[in-house]
Every structure is written in structure tokens, then in C-alpha cells.
């Protein structure tokens, strides 16, 4: 059994779920429970409002519908899991996991979706197909935010034939989506460790979550222009030998054959070459060989504690366990529950 009790951590509003009950002595569990009641629910995460099987009574087929539609598309397109996983991240980091990333811009509002970092976001059509199907089955019941959370999990899990992590449901949809917030809240691939850690802390996530969730870069691709200053213009000299010294020179040379100029914004490169559609712990092996693609990846080796965790996450079992916990915390960022927000009729537009 997995029971999550959210308590106020020692570091301000940082919230964490407890480990498996079985691992815990009953006495200490009761103590934790008492502490949790004493400090009240974690207001910032509001994760207490999420629960396993939220739609069990109101839309029993909800989770199965997500699984089958996402499964159908992901089996036909091995790049889809990366798209859906990134979509979930971008949703959660801007205004919480409220499906604000799915909203289209209107005449008087430029939405998150139309911010620079959205480059190559995809999977919107799959989410909308699930939504349409669920609106027919159980009108006005299942949120787009929950569909995004489930779709990320289901698509990444497909290759394993079992679900990699549990998703609690009960998220509701937001009504606001601003390009400016995407620009300020989404981490940049050019950021250093302290900036990244600060941004994660701002979302109630720990440095360890930064290291573990970056492991998502074990699947998918990156566009050349987002890292090619590491190849051609690292110190600003814009010369043939101006590569990032923290990047393996042989790998830099290989990347230069693919990314021919600083301006190339159309070519993509696998972030974990060799297994870029396999969700595994190989991202960390790559990092250690100084073959992380972005400055933000390489940054994980620049902090002692983080570098140590990289070493631990090389082990697949450790990575999968840690990822389960970190993505669960990510999926609880700023969620709207209860009567907050709405259940959107169509994921790309707020209800009128
Ligand atoms: C630590 C901060 C992070 C930064 C700076 C970052 C940055 C980026 C960038 C620049 C790309 C390439 C986009 C493109 O060129 O099309 C990318 C791709 C991706 N990111 Fe991250 N990311 C971060 C964390 C995360 C997290 C937490 C997740 C999910 C849990 C994630 C999942 C992905 C995936 C799956 C892709 C591949 C997308 C594709 O193949 O289209 N990233 N990321
Ligand atoms: C990280 O980047 C920020 C913003 O660019 C900068 O102010 C800071 O000095 C950098 N930190 C380190 C340790 O390089
Ligand atoms: C190279 O980097 C410098 C310093 O960051 C920048 O001013 C310059 O515009 C860059 N050159 C190109 C061609 O992008
Ligand atoms: C790519 O670069 C070209 C030329 O610099 C620019 O016109 C275009 O808008 C860019 N495309 C994207 C997706 O950023
Ligand atoms: C997928 C998507 O919505 N991409 C948009 C990202 O933002 C640019 C503008 O910055 C739009 O042109 C894209 O359509």
C-alpha cells in the first residue's frame, strides 16, 4: 500500500510524501500523522486534494481511456512519450499542473504555448482526442490537467508493459495562461546550477528533484540553437576553438557535424544518443562522460551533492524509484482541487 501524508518539511513550504508504509514502524507513522494534523495541510502543494482513482465513481473508464488512446498513438510514434512528458513538465512549472499549457492564445492574450521555450512542444492533439472521448462518456467530469498527468505516465510506461508511477487525480483546470509566465518560470537550458536549483525551490522542489527529473532527458531531442554556443561561441569569441571545456571534445566535434551554425534552429540531436526513445538511467552515464547536451545538464556535475546523486542514479533501480517520487511531487505543484478552477469542455479553450 502506498499512503502519502503531506507535512510541512523543515525547509519552509517544501512538501514531501512519506515512503512506503511498510517500511515504517507503525509508531513513527502515527507520529507523522499527528504532526501532519498539527501543522495542517501543505497549502502550497495542496496535494492533499489529489487522490488515487478520483474518477472511480464519476467516470470509471477515465484512466483506461487515457491509456488506450495514448497507447495507440505512442506505439505508432516512438517520439511521443518525450513530447507528453515534457508537456507535463511545462504545464506544472507554469501556474501549477492546471493544463494552462494547452490554452490557445486569443485576440487579447498571448498564452504560455506561444512562448519561445515551447519550441517543439507537441502531443496537444492526443490530449484533445482523449478529452473528446471522455466528454462523450462522462461530460464535464475529467480535467485536462489530469489527462496531461496520466498521458505522461502512460506514454513513458508503454515500453515496460506496466505503469512506472502512480498518478493521483482530482486536478482541475485553470483559466489563465500567460506567455510572460512561461518565459519567467521555465528553466533555461543555458542556466547554471544555482539558478536551476533556485527555480526548482521556487516550485517547492528540492535540489534532488532537479537532478532526478533532469533524467527525463534520457528520452527526446534538443534543437541545435539551444546548445550550439557550447560548440562555437562559449566565451563569446565565436571562434572554431571556442567550445565549452566541460563538454567532451570528441563529442563536441561530432555535434559540430550535425549543428553547422549557431543559428541552426531546425536540426535536432538526441539528448541520450543510442537510447533516445528508451526511458532508462543512461542519461546519467552520458552526463558523467561529459556528454550532457545542455549547459543545464552539465550543470548537475558542478555541485558536489548533485554530482554525487548523479553517481547513484546511474543504477536503474535507484533512478526509477527516485523518479517516481520526484514526478509525483512535480505533479502536485500548485494544483487546483475541490471547487477551484473548472473542468474545461475543450482543452485548448477556457469555458465561456
Ligand atoms: C532542469 C531544467 C530543464 C531544462 C533547462 C530543460 C530544457 C529542455 C530543452 C531546452 C529541451 C529541448 C527542446 C527542444 O529543443 O525542442 C528539453 C527537452 C525535453 N525535456 Fe527538458 N528541461 C528541464 C527539465 C525537464 C524536466 C523536469 C522534464 C520532465 C520531467 C523534462 C523533459 C524533457 C523531455 C522529455 C524533452 C524532449 C522533448 C522532445 O523530444 O521533443 N525536462 N528540455
Ligand atoms: C549563475 O548564473 C547567474 C545568472 O546568470 C549568475 O548571476 C551567477 O553568478 C551564476 N553562478 C555561478 C556560480 O556561476
Ligand atoms: C557570441 O557570444 C557573444 C557573447 O555572449 C555574443 O555577444 C555574440 O552575439 C555571439 N555571437 C553570435 C554569432 O551569436
Ligand atoms: C529560426 O531562425 C529563423 C532565421 O533566424 C527565424 O526566421 C525563425 O523564426 C526561427 N524559427 C524558430 C522556430 O525559432
Ligand atoms: C506548439 C506551439 O504552440 N508552438 C508555438 C510556440 O510559440 C511560437 C511563437 O513564439 C508559435 O509560433 C508556435 O506556434
Amino acid at each position: 500500500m502506498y499512503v502519502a501524508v503531506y507535512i510541512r518539511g523543515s525547509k519552509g513550504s517544501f512538501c514531501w510524501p512519506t515512503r512506503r508504509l511498510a517500511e515504517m514502524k507503525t509508531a513513527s507513522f502515527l507520529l507523522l500523522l499527528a504532526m501532519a494534523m498539527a501543522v495542517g495541510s501543505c497549502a502550497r502543494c495542496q496535494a492533499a486534494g489529489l487522490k488515487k482513482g478520483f474518477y472511480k465513481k464519476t467516470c470509471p473508464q477515465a484512466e483506461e481511456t487515457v491509456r488506450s488512446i495514448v497507447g495507440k498513438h505512442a506505439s505508432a510514434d516512438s517520439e511521443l512519450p518525450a513530447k507528453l512528458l515534457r508537456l507535463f513538465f511545462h504545464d506544472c512549472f507554469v501556474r501549477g499542473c492546471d493544463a494552462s499549457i494547452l490554452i490557445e492564445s486569443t485576440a487579447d492574450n498571448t498564452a504560455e504555448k506561444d512562448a519561445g521555450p515551447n519550441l517543439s512542444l507537441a502531443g496537444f492533439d492526443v490530449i484533445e482526442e482523449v478529452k473528446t472521448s471522455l466528454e462523450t462518456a462522462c461530460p464535464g467530469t475529467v480535467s485536462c490537467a489530469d489527462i496531461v498527468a496520466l498521458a505522461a505516465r502512460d506514454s513513458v510506461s508503454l515500453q515496460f508493459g506496466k505503469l512506472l508511477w502512480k498518478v493521483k487525480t482530482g486536478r482541475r483546470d485553470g483559466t489563465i495562461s500567460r506567455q510572460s509566465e512561461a518565459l519567467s518560470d521555465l528553466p533555461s537550458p543555458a542556466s547554471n546550477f544555482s539558478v536551476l536549483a533556485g527555480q526548482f525551490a521556487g516550485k517547492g522542489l528540492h535540489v534532488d528533484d532537479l537532478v532526478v527529473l533532469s533524467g527525463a532527458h534520457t528520452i527526446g531531442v534538443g534543437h541545435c540553437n539551444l546548445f550550439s554556443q557550447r560548440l562555437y561561441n562559449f566565451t563569446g569569441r565565436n571562434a572554431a576553438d571556442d567550445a565549452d571545456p566541460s563538454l567532451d571534445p570528441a563529442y563536441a566535434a561530432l555535434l559540430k557535424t550535425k549543428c553547422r551554425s549557431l543559428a541552426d534552429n531546425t536540426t535536432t540531436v538526441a539528448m541520450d544518443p543510442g537510447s533516445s526513445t528508451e526511458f532508462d538511467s543512461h542519461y546519467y552515464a552520458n552526463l558523467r562522460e561529459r556528454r550532457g547536451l545542455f549547459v543545464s545538464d552539465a550543470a548537475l556535475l558542478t555541485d558536489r551533492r548533485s554530482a554525487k546523486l548523479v553517481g547513484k542514479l546511474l543504477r536503474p533501480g535507484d533512478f526509477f524509484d527516485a523518479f517516481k517520487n520526484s514526478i509525483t511531487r512535480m505533479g502536485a505543484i500548485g494544483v487546483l482541487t475541490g471547487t477551484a478552477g473548472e473542468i474545461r469542455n475543450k482543452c485548448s479553450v477556457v469555458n465561456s
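Residues 192, 194-195 surround 2-acetamido-2-deoxy-beta-D-glucopyranose (ligand 2) (CB under 6 Å). The longest strand covers residues 221-223.
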